[in-house]
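User: Second chain of the day. Same drill as before.
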Amino acid sequence: MLKGTLTIGFMWVLLCGSAIGQTSGSLPYSDDPMEQFRQAMERRSMKAAWSAVIIVQQGAGTKRDPKRADEMWSELWDKLAQPSAGLNPPPNAVSLLRAAANLGLPSAMRRLSEILEHGEFGFTPDPIAAAEWRKRAAEVASQQQ
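Assistant: Same format as last time:
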């Protein structure tokens, strides 16, 4: 399960490419995913930030911390979804959101629920799917307490 989840996450990073990997130059190497995330966010490298979220969520080479990964995801989504942050939401932002929800990040599940509930990003409102994502988010969040 872990291997498959990591593979999906890292495949997503590769597929996103330039749409979320906006950076000026390469990031200095850090074996600390929290430091990698901080540097990635400072340099607006969404691809590197997403990689750090996956590493923290899955505990790949570091202590698994789903609650912290969820906080990191929220910060990343805020950067992706706010044009005032200097980035227009990339066309595949909702695909990244779905990947984060499928990875088990409650804040991503809640945001996806809102999108489906209200029909944002061009989606047709789907209250049933929205309710399912809200329920999953609550279940996962309660397990992280």
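Residues 2-144 form one domain.

User: Great, on to the next one.
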